[in-house]
Amino acid sequence: MILIKGGKLCGATSELEVGDILIKDGKIAKIAERIDPVGEMTIINAKSLMVAPGLVDLHVHFRDPGFEYKEDIMTGAAAAAAGGVTTCLCMANTLPVADNVKTIEYILDKAKDAPIKIVPIGAITLEHKGETLTDFAALKAAGVIALSDDGSAIQSAKLVRHAMHQAHKNKMTLISHCEDDELAKNYAVNEGVVSQALGLPGRPAIAEEIMVARDVMLSVETGAKVHIAHVSTAASVAIIRMAKKVGAYITAETCPQYFALTEDEILKQGTNARVNPPLRTQDDVTAIIEGLIDGTIDVIATDHAPHSVEDKAQSLEDAPSGMIGLETSLALALTYLYHTGKLKIGEIIQCMSTHPARIVGLESGVLTEGASADIVMFDPHEQWVVDPDQFKSKARNSPFSGMELKGKVKYTISRGEIVYRDTF
Ligand code: DOR
Description:
- It is a single chain.
- This protein is an alpha/beta fold.
- It has 14 helices and 16 strands.
- The protein has helices at 73-82, 101-111, 136-141, 157-169, 181-184, 193-198, 205-222, 234-245, 256-260, 265-269, 282-293, 309-312, 329-338, 345-359; strands at residues 2-9, 18-24, 27-32, 42-45, 50-53, 55-60, 85-90, 117-120, 146-148, 173-176, 226-228, 250-254, 299-300, 375-385, 404-414, 417-421.
- The strands form 3 sheets. Strands 1, 2, 3, 4, 5, 14, 15 and 16 form an 8-stranded mixed sheet that branches.
- The protein starts with a strand and ends with a strand.
- Bound molecules: (4S)-2,6-dioxohexahydropyrimidine-4-carboxylic acid.
- (4S)-2,6-dioxohexahydropyrimidine-4-carboxylic acid (DOR) binds next to loops.
């Protein structure tokens, strides 16, 4: 048994602002103003801490199977626990691609030993080739609740339309990676002043926006539940805002890199700032934050995309895109959104826990009696400097290295077990 004493409650069904939580048999047994310890139990003094539902990350790449030299399920899960994340949805761009029941079973089997909950996302198309749909019903029966070809975008509107009909029929969420391949190519950076300064062709904002517009319209037409991954531009936010006004069943996510960084970071950090979609301009950052404030953007996910040091040591044109984020996401949200007065802590927890859980139909994301004891405890004011050498992840490709952040995860509890404890 664990007794959490005197924490500031956030994301709880109870009206209490400060209270105690008793954890028994992996579940939240009781939430009350005061619970006295009985028998043998671990007591956590949470007086200066926020106590919130464990974070639910809808977008991580754990590279397992196939690219375990970058990350595997256990190291990814350890990184998640260190970041306060108690549920991760793993993207399907593994090797083999998670487009078949056997691979889903492999992931679920490995996940049994992980410290947090791992939920595999199934591929929309075979081998992520954007040509033939996978068997959604079979994937669902194997435990898949959401589908995505993230990492690549399906170019055929006809196929996406068909996928949406199938997803709707099977009651599954479709997570859309929005980029037009002909416009984005494999270019490394945003099209704009930085690409010009580097003399490189760029990935224009419109490459994302036309695909967001397409998928929003297809969602309206098919009635499918569509979640737009990693929104990075001002016009994407505007399209989603409009779509929600007309009643589209659309939800959207952004990631810390899109509200904390601009394309200028490429000039300072090189390949560690290379990500798809690319870091954009200050105007885009401002619009992303406005989208979070007015609820156009429902979710903050990480798009945790581990790559090895060797991968990232290549030239900007050749290095793979992606950055890790599990061990910095909550601190970045607190630093850039809470300490700047843009969002309240409760709103951040909604974007990082309650909303993502609801979008894919998971029961987590709220502190309530009887629920699985998935809890993050954090000090919103503690300052620390990001040092990727201390990360649990195998990867080091963080553009936030050396940055001073305000807000630190102190404990993570998953299914009633303490799976991470900060060294004080
Ligand atoms: O930068 C990215 N990296 N964006 C994606 O969509 C995929 C990811 C990866 O798998 O490395």
